[in-house]
Amino acid sequence: MAKLNINGKHIDIEVDGATPLLWVLREQLGLTGTKYSCGIGLCGACTVHIDGKAVRSCLVPVSTLSASKAIVTIEALSADNNHPIQQAWKTLDVPQCGYCQSGMIMAAAALLKTNAQPSDADIDANITNICRCGTFNRVRRGIHLAADINKRGRS
Amino acid sequence: MDKERINVSRREFLIHSTALGAGFSLGLYLPFSGNAFAAGGVAPTVSSSVPEVNAWVVIEPDDTVVIRIARSEMGQGTLTGLAQLVAEELECDWAKVTTEYPTPGQNLDRDNIWGSFLTGGSRGIRGSQQYVRKGGAVARQMLIEAAAEKWKVPMAECHAVNSVITHRPSGRSTTYGKVAAAAATMFPPDQVELKDPKDWKLIGQPVKRLDTVDKLNGKQVYGADLKLEGMLNAAIKACPVFGGKLKSFDAAKVNNMPGVRKVVAVQDNAVAVVAETWWQAKTALDALPITWDNGPNATLSSASIEKMLEAGLTSKQNVFVGNQHGDVNKALQGAVKTVEATYGYPYQNHACMEPMNATARWTRDRCEVWCPTQNGTAALQAAVAAADLPISQCDVYKLLIGGGFGRRGFHDFVTQVVTIAKQLPGTPIKLLWTREEDMAHGYYHPITKCKLVGGLDASGNLTGLHVRISGQSILAAVNPKWLSNGADMITFQGLLPEGEHAISYTVPNLLVEHAMRNPPVPPGFWRGVNINQNAIYLECFIDELAHAAGKDALEFRRKLLADQPKSLAVLNAVAKKAGWGKPAAKGVYRGLSVCKTFDSYVAACAEVSVDAKGKLRIRRIVAATDPGYAVNPQQIEAQVEGSFVFGLSALLYDECTLKDGAVEQTNFHNYPSMLIAEMPKVEVIVMPSGGFWGGIGEPTIAVAAPAVLNAIFAATGKRIRQLPIKDTALRSA
User: Fold this and answer.
1) B470 by DSSP, 3-state: which?
2) Which of B394, B424, B440 is the last residue of a domain?
């Protein structure tokens, strides 16, 4: 039995504690926005937020989680695609195939949370998701644009 | 270009009007509901409550325009580009456009009315632009005719703009949605005129993609995400040694593990565990004792393949000529200076982000498959063969693809899933490969080597060039029927005398050969295919020749391109924008490359720096593309940038090596892909010169690696002739 706090809801589920969070999200909870690609924490397609930090969910056994850890998936990043990262991504048509983009968006959103105006070097150091379509330059522009959207929103 | 006059075949009309279900005598009602998928999502299309206007266009009473797309979307933007082409001629309101995929079964039922489903070779737009535009134009005519008939006025007095039909003399107007049902009963016009490109309003515009929104919030359902009622999940392992077989497995050891329903042999070389969840299936598969019969290739290694290819560089056996004119031997003998070099290119995996997968439901009288595929028709054929049912009782539903790059033109995973589903009749089975399985069982970008010899005269002009490729043929493995008298013409991409992959340079004496050497490793089409290898060979060697001749790399190329104004134009464009000939920043060096590929003309100028420790930084690439017509310039820009990630990952890291008959690389730790930190600034020049249609998704990959390699030489004086760079010291100790 795992007690989880996912997208603001407390959820109790019967599942083998060794099961990675990724597969609990995808298979027990139907939250398939979080993607499987490498399974070893290298590609970032499975990135979710745990207590606000970007975490690769394929490496997190559910037994290590508890109801006190707030997990947010791409489905709950915003109510209506209106997170600044999502707005920027839409403005710049960032996704190509889109498969890595849930993870990319979650990684970028987590970066903005700790660094409101990330530099290119900050982006290089923090965004380590793999994208085989090659959306990187638009991802970079998207993060800068989202930072600007945030700034405008606050001022 | 003038307006194109296109005949609408009566036969085509009669066929599609007889292929209909009951309900409309002439109305082209196609029962899409429950079969087709809105191309942007997975929900069965239920919107088609109205008859189609024609095969390409359905218009709902609320004016929603549904455009049917036959090619597969895998990130390259073809869905949006093809919709733009139809919408341009349809004169519809772009804001109301949505898309859906017809199924390959429906295409078969309607005598291939949607043309080819094959999505590869950068052909999505260029291979279907004429008939999809015609589809839009015919639908527009039928809609206008329906309005004219309703108003009892001559059609010629009516016109359509933005989904609104207006009768000019009276000023009356109506919308497409109001007349669509009536239009569906009209005979298509005998002929339609396509617009003069100068009148295009939507083609050429950087409109936004139609498939973005659901990719931002996790709603987009890919094949790996599909969930059907009562579905079980399968994980699979095939013999890691190519050509090896499954000998035995001990199902009793895992049958009692959580969720496990069945352990099944799949064909003669694989075993799958079917369980309630995929994680359970994968966990049990990892615990399953399996014995393989490694077969005849158990000793195959990269070293043995290297030996085979090395011998092919000078052999007379199994050699094919791809291009020949003049007398190259004489020219080389008479040369004042000859230059010789041997290059090598490894096996590479597509490594699509979405691992291979497919879902199937098999019963004694029907087999249905849901999968990401680049070729719905081939997926259907694979399903039919494995299902052992007539084709009329099978169909394939395509999903948006999480990365294709050529890998999803092969359907081994469809054969597998149907084979599994047959052993559990009536239960939908989703098969998902692990990344490790994906790395072990690709259709690899084929390995080749290339020896080049060039001759220069006293003035440093290139008088003769001999190119000998040695290596694997894709076609010999994929379909030997596509060979031309034994030769694989794809192997010569970029070196051919004419066509979409003609050599750009005019060389007085030229010989291009291929010694076909086929190791037992499955080769496949990999974004760019052989132009990737060949452009490196030719463009780096041209640089070597220029250097040997003491000439500037741009001037040397310009002279050889005198007969090729379009190639020259893209080369000049990148040179100018990059500042070729002007000093770069301190420590920054430039390299060039140019080629014609997939009927587009492309060039690149790369800027790199290499620090004292040999650390390479690719700083900037200026790239130019002349695709003839540019349907969506912002998507071309995205494709060019993206192609560089694919091409530069290949240059820097990607290599599949063989040991004991199996691929050694297993995941992204030993098969890395470029990250954002390594991404250069990319400046894209789109310079459509009109009059032809070239491809976009692949061409610029080919110029990325050679431009960077030539810049590395400029920076270090070191020629890198074996890919990938990863193990090469750029600054010798």
Assistant:
1) strand
2) B440
Q: Is residue B723 part of a domain?
A: no
Residue B47 is classified by DSSP as -
- DSSP letter at B124 equals T
Residues in chain A with CB shorter than 8 Å from the CB of B677 are 124-125, 128
Instruction: Give chain A's largest Cα–Cα span.
Output: 48
How would residue B481 be classed by pLDDT, with cut points 50, 70 and 90? very high
Contact A93 B277 (CB under 8 A): no
Amino acid at B214: D
The two tokens of residue B611 are 């620090």
Are the beta carbons of A30 and B227 separated by less than 8 Å? yes
Residue of B80, B84, B260, B279 to mutate for A, most A C-beta atoms under 10 A? B279
Q: Considering only alpha carbons, which residue of chain B is nearest residue A23? A: B279
The ipTM assigned to this model is: 0.98
Same domain, B267 and B320: no
From chain B, pick out residues whose CB is under 8 angstroms from the CB of A35: 222, 224, 353-354, 402
Q: How far apart are CA B332 and CA B339, in angstroms?
A: 10
Q: Are B557 and B546 in contact (CB under 8 A)?
A: yes
Q: In whole angstroms, how far apart are CA B158 and each of A71, B136, B634? A: 59, 17, 34
Spatial strand order of the sheet with B37-38 comes to: B37-38, B97-101, B65-68, B57-59
Of the candidates B47, B56, B52, B46, which has an alpha carbon nearest to the alpha carbon of residue B90? Answer: B56
| Short-list A133, A37, A119, CA closest to B433 | A37
Q: How confident is the model at residue A154 (pLDDT cuts 50, 70, 90)?
A: confident
CB A101 within 8 A of CB B216: yes
Check: CB of residue B236 under 8 Å from CB of residue A116: no
Give B685-711 pLDDT, tens digit per residue.
999 999 999 999 999 999 999 999 999
Domain annotation for chain A: domains and CATH numbers: 2-76 (3.10.20.30), 84-154 (1.10.150.120)
* Torsion angle of C-alpha atoms B648, B653, B656, B657, degrees rounded to 10: 140
Task: For residue range B268-307, list pLDDT tens digits in order.
Answer: 999 999 999 999 999 999 999 999 999 999 999 999 999 9
Site of tokens 């929104």? B213
Q: Are B236 and B271 in contact (CB under 8 A)?
A: yes
- Best residue in A37, A40, A60, A104 for a mutation probing chain B (most B CBs within 10 Å): A37
Residue B588 shares a structural domain with residue B677: yes
**Contact check, Cβ <8 Å, A132/B646:** yes
- Angstroms from B74 CA to nearest CA on chain A: 5
Q: Residue A38: its chain B contacts at CB < 8 A?
A: 435, 667-668
- Based on the fold, state whether residues B242 and B289 are members of the same structural domain: yes
Burial class for B699, CB neighbours closer than 10 Å (0-12, 13-18, 19+): buried
B451 and B435, same structural domain? Answer: no
**Burial of B226 from C-beta contacts in 10 A (0-12 / 13-18 / 19+):** buried
Strands B97-101 and B65-68: parallel
Average pLDDT over residues B500-523: 98
Over chain B, what is the mean pLDDT? Answer: 93
Min Cα distance B594 → chain A (Å) is 21
Residue B24 predicted with pLDDT over 50: no
Q: Is B322 helix (H, G, I), strand (E, B) or coil?
A: strand
Band (pLDDT 50/70/90 cuts) for residue B728 is: confident
Q: Which residues of A touch B641 (CB under 8 A)?
A: 134-138
